[in-house]
């Protein structure tokens, strides 16, 4: 294993120390671990907080800043953060408008963020959890019940962070977040595996002419393996799966603040159809160069045009990664005038910045 | 070779087509190939133009936009662009204030940009060439006479692009560019090689426990190979080489517009010393994740502090790459109030953006 690390046990701590030194606009706590806006606590704005396993940088820590996340909680590599991290982060940043936890749909993350929400609620802080489950690869994988949360997270955190900055209240932020999630669909593929530092060898092995379609961001098994294809063929496979994805039914869990309990209701995500306008993300899994992402974007744009889908905004780069994995994921999020204006609003974070 | 490409012969064209679709604020010509600001030609501001082999993305195309480059000329992978590209780019963007060509010190680039300067001059456009030669690894390598141009290019293009935007004339821009170059020093290392698409196999081979210090951005041989070290040890090696680097004498070639000839004078770059203030770049060679760069930055910050060097600004990410190569380079550029204010000025490009 060749990585720019010191001791395996100190990987996250040392990365956070470096991040703190490089970004004085962030306040980074090492025990428990969280990354927060240095100007927190917020006074009267909703604090949007996310988190998850490390190894997906810049997500989530690189999205902390004005107009996006108030705080992020990094777990160990590919491992959920713990409720005490989320609880401490919430107390560090929350003002009177409460806390919105943005949770990717992995069992550990869901459980720990729900525990944290209950703890925060007990302290009298308004709280709500929203889930991201946008990966069309699998409905049930080895790691999770239901779809995994992947690329839509990036777009959701930008949009809802802007809404919080604009003064939306907690319920409005939660409603918007759920809409963005229901509008988002993603699919990823790997050319190579990655190596988790504590494991020291690749999570999986692909042959010299082999690729995997539908991988998760933690190296979860994909839908299938196939031989190497051209960029156009790979992009067509990913985009067709996203655009041909039908209705998706799932249970939405919501924190009922009045009765201090979780309530569930069934929701149905509707497919993308001709006439829809989208924000498109072409995302490197970590080790794929920017130039190859543009080759993918080229075909994505042509496919969307041929299907009557209009790309209004795009993001091409490494935003939700799996360490040094080579590969690409594509995310399309249907947009409307409200989502679009929140996307365009100013943001100032290490990884996404405009308007400042 | 597993890459997200179609035919090897179309790699650059298709990447440019994707880039054009993703960035409507750019105007991209495919024959000859150049990337320009869509709002060009500039009227009364100096057009800063750069270029070089492809494979280093986002450099240079990702730096085209308001406050940085007016245009960039991409060659084939790791191959100099041709004079006709530079000539066409200059005509596409130049206003009355003329053209500054920013050239990394590789024999082909230097020769072709000098030819282009003569062609542009013959058309009555004011022109000047400035060289970047900041790599302390080697004074003479397989590919070039003198030091290679690496990470300082990123900082120089930002600073001089801001100066052009602020209304500096051509000679002022050239003087500032030469000062930034004389203030900049870099060193890089590789954990892995990269694979040039047209070649189809890795440029060099490193063992499972082997790294190379002092590599160039085209896979040029480095100073030496050694066994795998910790992030702290690797960072210390790079930073010490940069800070211990002494005076560097070289010939500076300048276009004498009055006499239409190249003139040379000897210049001496002075070392970085305690009390200096710097802009620091920790750069991924392409395949190294953001998290590992922060581990390197952590040690870089400590080493600079212990040597009395104050880091005023930093940039941590993939800015000047070698395709999917894993590894890191460090660049320190001494700064002064003028350079710092130009660094902080607004910039709006695909890869660097603030103030917009």
Textual characterization of the structure:
With about 350 residues, chain A is α+β, with helices and mostly antiparallel strands. Chain A folds into 2 domains: about 10-185 and about 245-270 and about 335-355, Dihydroxyacetone kinase, domain 1 (Rossmann fold, 3-Layer(aba) Sandwich), CATH 3.40.50; about 185-245 and about 275-335, Hypothetical Protein Tm841, Chain: A,domain 3 (2-Layer Sandwich). Chain A has 8 helices and 18 strands. In chain A, strands 1-2-4-3-5-6 form a 6-stranded mixed β-sheet, sandwiched between helices. In chain A, helix 7 links the parallel strand 14 (about 275-285) and strand 15 (about 310-315). In chain A, helix 4 packs antiparallel against helix 5. Chain A is globular. At the A-B interface, helix 1, helix 6, helix 7 and strand 18 of A face helix 1, helix 6, helix 7 and strand 18 of B.
**Chain pair with largest interface:** A-B, 59 and 59 residues
- Assembly level: homodimer
Q: Residue-averaged pLDDT of chain A, rounded?
A: 96
According to DSSP, the number of beta strands of chain A is 18
- What is the CATH fold-level name of the largest domain in chain A? Rossmann fold
CATH architecture of the largest domain in chain A: 3-Layer(aba) Sandwich
Q: Radius of gyration of chain A over alpha carbons?
A: 19 Å
Which CATH top level class of the largest domain in chain A fits? Alpha Beta
Question: Stretches of chain A where pLDDT falls below 50 for ≥5 residues?
Answer: none
Instruction: Tell me the strand percentage band of chain A.
Output: 25-35%
Question: Order of strands across the widest beta sheet of chain A?
Answer: 1-2-4-3-5-6
Name the helicity range of chain A.
Answer: 25-40%
CATH superfamily membership of the largest domain in chain A: Dihydroxyacetone kinase, domain 1
């Amino acid at each position: 294993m060749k990585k720019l690390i010191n001791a395996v046990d100190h990987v996250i701590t040392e990365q956070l120390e470096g991040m703190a030194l490089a970004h004085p606009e962030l306040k980074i706590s090492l025990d428990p671990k969280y990354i927060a806006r240095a100007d927190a606590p917020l006074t009267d704005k909703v604090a949007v907080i996310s988190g998850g396993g490390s190894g997906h940088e810049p997500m989530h820590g690189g999205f902390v800043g004005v107009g996006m996340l108030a705080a992020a909680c990094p777990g160990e590599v590919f491992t959920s953060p713990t409720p005490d991290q989320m609880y401490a982060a919430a107390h560090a940043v929350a003002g009177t408008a409460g806390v919105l936890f943005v949770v990717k749909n992995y069992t550990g993350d869901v459980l720990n963020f729900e525990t944290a929400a209950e703890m925060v609620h007990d302290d009298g802080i308004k709280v709500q959890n929203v889930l991201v489950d946008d990966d069309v690869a699998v409905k049930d994988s080895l790691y999770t019940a239901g779809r995994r949360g992947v690329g839509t997270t990036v777009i959701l955190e930008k949009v809802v962070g802007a809404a919080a900055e604009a003064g939306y209240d907690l319920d409005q932020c939660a409603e918007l977040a759920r809409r963005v999630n229901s509008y988002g669909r993603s699919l990823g593929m790997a050319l190579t595996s990655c190596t988790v530092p504590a494991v020291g060898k690749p999570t999986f092995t692909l042959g010299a002419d082999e690729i995997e379609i539908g991988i998760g961001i933690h190296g979860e098994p994909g839908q299938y393996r196939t031989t190497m294809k051209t960029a156009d063929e790979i992009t067509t496979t990913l985009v067709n799966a996203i655009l041909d994805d039908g209705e998706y039914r799932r249970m939405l869990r919501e924190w009922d603040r009045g009765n201090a309990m979780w309530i569930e209701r069934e929701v149905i995500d509707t497919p993308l159809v001709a006439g829809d306008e989208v924000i498109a993300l072409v995302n490197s899994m970590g080790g794929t160069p920017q130039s190859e992402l543009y080759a993918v974007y080229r075909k994505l744009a042509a496919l969307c045009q041929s299907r009557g889908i209009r790309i209004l905004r795009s993001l091409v780069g490494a935003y939700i990664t799996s360490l040094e994995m080579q590969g690409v994921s594509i995310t399309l999020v249907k947009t409307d005038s409200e989502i679009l204006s929140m996307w365009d609003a100013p943001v100032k974070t290490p990884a996404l910045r405009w308007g400042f």
